[in-house]
Amino acid sequence: MGNPATVSMTLESPPLVCYGHPKDSTGALISGLLHLGIHTQSLRVQSFKMDLQAEILTRRPIAAHCPNCTARTEDIHTWTIISEPVTLVHGINSYPFSYIIPGNLPATNSNALGRIRYFLKAVALSAQGNEIRFSREIQISRAILPGPERHSVRIFPPTNLSAHVNLPHIVHPDGDFQLDIRLDGVMSPDKETRWKLKKVSWRIDESSKIISPSCSHHQSKLCGNGKGMLHEDVCTVGSGELKSGWKADYSNSGRIEMEIIAGMPAHMNAACDIESACGIKVSHNLVVEMIVAEEHCPKGTSNRLGTQVGAARILRMQFLLHVSARAGLGISWDEEQPPLYDNIPPGPPKYQTFIEGAVEPRESPPVYEGIPM
């Protein structure tokens, strides 16, 4: 015999996006309908509830084959829909639900060391002892709104070279971004030697950290309860190099300008930045390396002519990248409040009535301030 009832769900809220940093975010609003479909003529339901749960998984557990060391579940919110026994007739019974997801909750994340996922799990218990279960995974994202570009200056002693770099405020894990670099001090003060750029390479490193806790059966491996083991991992999620394509100006002090299109391809499955209380942290660094060689160029020679006189140098720069999900419209739930009834103006003017073929206005129409008649 099949199940006497089934549970389904209809989500009415937009994608769950928490805007801003965890300490400033107002969270995201989730709302929808939970449907309990009764297939028999009637069914006695003892209880019906739904939980919002977070599942934290570590890919390097203390005990490799222990499910309790690998994953743990935390309850965030519970909806008690039916708390007392009730008899439901054949058909679909719909129950609305809503909840404001806290803004400091870590977003859904999957990296080299761990994973955070969220589920809506509903359970209906019938009087005969049957459990009707339903589970649906939901995606919670965090988006940092774009801001002004970041400008950084790097100096490379003992040379006179300095690099001016423009970076975007926010980058996304599945898109490209532009990196502007200007290298100053290419010519020596005596105009006899110069630095010539040979190659530029860049890469984006994703650093992951996780604290793997132990279950009650494997506490002895960490010499105590409540302790965990820290794991770290660094992987490259984007890279590239240039051997040409920049502009060089060797007049006066000399400068080299270039534009680099960097990014993280979608197939690299880069994760967004996160730092949660459950022990998972993900950050990204952009590493740029420029190889320059010193050349001798006597006065009066062409800019393209030169003789290499010294060893090549590697100019290395490192920048912290803020990787976030796309903001979309960038409007949080608290800014989408519809107009209140007090904000609605009076009703439209009433229609005129006909009296013995003549048109006589019943009353003068109201006058709206600021609206031309």
Automatic annotation (TrEMBL):
GO terms for molecular function: protein-macromolecule adaptor activity; ubiquitin protein ligase binding. It comes from the Eukaryota. Gene3D superfamilies: 2.60.40.640. It holds the Pfam family LDB19. GO terms for cellular component: cytosol; plasma membrane. Residues 49-221 form the LDB19 N-terminal domain. InterPro entries: Arrestin-like_C, Arrestin_domain-protein, Ig_E-set, LDB19_N. GO terms for biological process: ubiquitin-dependent endocytosis. PANTHER family: ARRESTIN DOMAIN CONTAINING PROTEIN (PTHR11188), PROTEIN LDB19 (PTHR11188:SF76). This is LDB19 N-terminal domain-containing protein.
